[in-house]
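We were asked to recover a plausible sequence for a given structure. The inputs and outputs are reproduced exactly as logged, with field labels preserved.

PROBLEM: sequence recovery
POSITIONS: 334
GIVEN STRUCTURE:
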């Protein structure tokens, strides 16, 4: 199985050395490491070039320099596109000479620029994939790392690998993309449905769940650094951010419906779940538009589609008259 690590980079100089060292010093070396710099202004690209040269990694490590800043979503998207295009071209080449493999074997491991990998992340991931050929997306866990380098346990560390069945929250990402490992076949089979304005991890989660190939692995793969500059950092929830998230949910559900129409991957029961998710969006949209008790009661019928009950309570809060609200609420999940 070929292993390819993809690292998206933008102004990450402060933490890059720790992250790159943790990748380089893995108990099992990756076949390739691709890094894409999104026009950093802090010298990140120059540091990576020197790091590759210093450690004699030019045969397996490659830095791709973007020509203009495109943002973290598109940066990861371009990385994945690069890998899957190479994978598809290789498949075409093999097919032309009659050497098609039944099970394409390429695994892509995603990485942020500022975390620290556990030394056996790659080894454990490859082992988990080899144990279950149905796995297309393996999602590990993590422990938190604060700005002072203090580790706080998050993973229960049970070592359990569990398949996630398609449910009414399929469009909510439960874990960050930096603990994802994906089989190239999943990207190849779904790439025509990808949307550049949607997060890469949300789309991977959704497609894998629809294809019954999403497995979670309860061990800490990385130390996950949380600070104000992370894409998933804590924000204040406002009615504006809730409407933005709702638009994203609607788009994801539309993508899921399009994919199922053309692939037929969902069972009849799962299609009913998908249809209900569409009605959930309409009910939630109506709640924000009308702000009435009747609209709230209707939205309450779709609690299984909300990311959490707390999120539903947040919707109710922002439907209160402005003059009696206390303040905006900290935390995206409210």
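RECOVERED SEQUENCE:
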């Amino acid at each position: 199985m070929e292993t390819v690590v993809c690292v998206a980079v933008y102004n990450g100089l402060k933490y890059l050395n720790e992250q790159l060292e943790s990748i380089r010093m893995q108990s099992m070396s990756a076949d390739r490491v691709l890094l894409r710099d999104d026009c950093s202004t802090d010298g990140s690209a120059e540091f990576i070039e020197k790091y590759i040269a210093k450690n004699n990694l030019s045969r397996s490590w490659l830095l791709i320099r973007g020509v203009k800043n495109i943002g973290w979503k598109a940066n990861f998207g371009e990385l994945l596109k690069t890998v899957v295009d190479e994978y598809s071209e290789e498949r075409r080449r093999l097919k032309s000479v009659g050497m098609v493999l039944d099970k394409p074997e390429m695994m892509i491991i995603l990485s942020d620029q500022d975390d620290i990998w556990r030394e056996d992340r790659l080894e454990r991931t490859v082992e988990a994939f080899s144990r279950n050929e149905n796995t297309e997306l393996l999602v590990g866990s993590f422990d938190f790392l604060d700005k002072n380098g203090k580790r706080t346990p998050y993973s229960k560390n049970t070592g359990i690998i569990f398949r996630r069945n398609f449910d009414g929250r399929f469009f909510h990402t439960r874990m960050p993309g930096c603990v994802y490992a994906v089989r190239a076949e999943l990207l190849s089979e779904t790439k025509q449905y990808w949307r550049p304005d949607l997060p890469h991890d949300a789309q991977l989660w959704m497609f894998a769940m629809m294809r019954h190939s999403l497995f979670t692995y309860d061990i800490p793969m990385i130390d996950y650094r949380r600070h104000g500059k992370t894409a998933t950092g804590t924000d204040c929830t406002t009615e504006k951010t809730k409407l933005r998230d709702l638009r994203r949910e609607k788009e994801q559900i539309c993508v899921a419906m399009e994919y199922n129409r053309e692939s037929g991957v969902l069972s009849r029961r799962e299609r009913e779940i998908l249809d209900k998710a569409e009605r959930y969006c309409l009910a939630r949209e109506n709640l924000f538009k009308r702000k009435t008790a009747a609209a709230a009661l209707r939205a309450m019928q779709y609690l299984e589609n909300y990311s959490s009950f707390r999120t539903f309570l947040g919707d109710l809060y922002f439907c209160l008259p402005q003059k009696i609200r206390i303040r905006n609420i900290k935390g995206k999940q409210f």
